[in-house]
Write a structure and sequence with these properties.
3 strands; 3 helices; alpha+beta; three-stranded mixed β-sheet
Length: about 110
């Protein structure tokens, strides 16, 4: 067994990240054993997306990868929800806002 070439791994990432719904791809694992090739990765999608929509996106990516690398490639996708980070902070008083605006200068 050995890992697929770097060019194939980069192409897999490019195919996945070209989809506007894909937030990230990680834990990409590839291997070949004789003529058989295997690809596995974790796909991060919007956590508010329906399971059906997430599955459709993963299936479309698997088909696109097979179209590029060969129909005999086995592709396994793990779907993970990505939740947007909330910004922490506090409200600013009007005087503080005026000071920031002044420091930034005119628009």
């Amino acid at each position: 067994d050995r890992e697929l070439p770097d060019a194939a791994r980069e192409r897999i990432r490019a195919i996945a990240l070209a989809n506007p719904f894909v937030r990230d791809l990680h834990d990409l694992k590839t291997r070949s054993s004789g003529q058989a090739r295997f690809i596995q990765f974790h796909l991060e999608l919007d956590g508010d997306m329906s399971l059906g929509a997430a599955h459709d996106i993963a299936s479309a990516l698997e088909l696109a990868i097979r179209a590029e690398l060969g129909a005999d490639v086995e592709v396994e996708t793990h779907i993970e929800p990505m939740v947007a980070d909330e910004l922490s902070g506090q409200n600013i008083e009007a005087s503080g806002l005026a000071a920031i605006a002044s420091a930034l200068g005119p628009r």
